[in-house]
Design a protein that fits this description.
Layout: H1 8-12, E1 15-18, E2 30-33, E3 42-43, E4 51-52, H2 64-68, H3 80-85, H4 91-104
Antiparallel strand pairs: 1-2, 3-4
The structure holds iron/sulfur cluster (2 copies).
One iron/sulfur cluster (SF4) binds next to helix 1 and helix 3.
């Protein structure tokens, strides 16, 4: 699945994240980003242009976030949720996401 960087998952889901990027994914350095709270590693304020500050770390492939977007049987298909959010029908959701992102900075 190809993530369209709408930001929905990194705000709306409970996710286990690496707390301090310098320490990597060891057990004592994991925390839960709670539902509705923008992840502290999230960067950007516009749906479609969101990025993750730890995405390029050598250990990123060991994280639950990496696994979330790896469905080998359809790895090139665009995310269906993201496609909806980025469409005309998703404008209200986009506004809500972007309001949360602005409040997080
Ligand atoms: S670590 Fe990155 S991909 Fe995972 S929730 Fe945070 S911003 Fe999103
Ligand atoms: S809903 Fe899809 S496009 Fe949006 S952040 Fe999640 S995986 Fe990416």
């Amino acid at each position: 699945m190809k993530c369209l960087r709408c930001g929905y998952c990194c705000i709306s889901l409970d996710v286990v994240i690496v707390d301090d990027p310098e320490k990597g994914p060891r057990q004592s350095n994991l925390s839960i980003k709670e539902t509705g709270v923008p992840c502290k590693h999230l960067r950007g304020e516009k749906c479609g242009e969101i990025s993750c500050a730890v995405h390029d770390k050598p250990w990123y492939s060991e994280t639950p976030c990496f696994q979330h977007t790896q469905l080998p049987e359809c790895s090139k298909a665009p995310c269906r949720m993201g496609s909806y959010i980025m469409s005309d029908k998703g404008s209200e959701v986009r506004q809500r996401i972007e309001a949360k992102l602005k409040g997080a900075h």
